Amino acid sequence: QVQLVESGGGLVQPGGSLRLSCAASGSIFSMQAMGWYRQAPGKQRELVAGITSDGRTNYGDSVKGRFTISRDNAKNTVNLQMNSLKPEDTAVYYCNAEARPYGLGYGHYWGQGTQVTVSS
Q1: Please, which of 48, 84, 86, 102 could form a disulfide with 36 given CB 3.0 to 4.6 Å?
Q2: What is the pLDDT of residues 20-75, one digit of tens each?
């Protein structure tokens, strides 16, 4: 069906930057919204940023002005540029996509997650 693979996580100091990437593969007929979520220990998973197939974006309040989401429809990839990182951004970041595999209806798919740690 659809597989999502994230990359780009790691350890960064406060104020630093990281870029996350997510590539979708499989028998994809169509891709709608893509996005990034995160989950910190003891907290619920929350939306970080989303982007529609025509490029409209939305962001969680805590990351507005610091994070930028982008996508490449031809390559089925979505990226998250994270600047001015804070310790509270520490979490596992998950890629999400609303996709339609060939012969099936739309469904939501998740990547395996990538750890982002912001610490001095």
Answers
A1: 48
A2: 999 999 999 999 999 999 999 999 999 999 999 999 999 999 999 999 999 999 99
77 touches 26 (CB < 8 A): no
Distance, CA of 114 to CA of 8 (rounded, Å): 7
**Contact by Cβ (8 Å): 22, 79:** yes
Number of H helices, E strands in the chain: 0, 11
> Do residues 110 and 99 lie in contact, with contact meaning Cβ atoms separated by under 8 Å?
no
Angle 42-48-53 (CA atoms, 0-180°, nearest 5)?
140
**Would the CA dihedral through 105, 111, 112, 117 be positive or negative?**
negative
What distance in Å separates the CA atoms of residue 50 and residue 56, rounded to the nearest whole number? Answer: 8
- Residues with Cβ within 8 Å of 49's Cβ and at least 6 positions away in sequence, in order, are 35, 36, 57, 58, 59, 60, 63, 67, 68, 69, 80
Which pair of tokens denotes residue 40? 């910190």
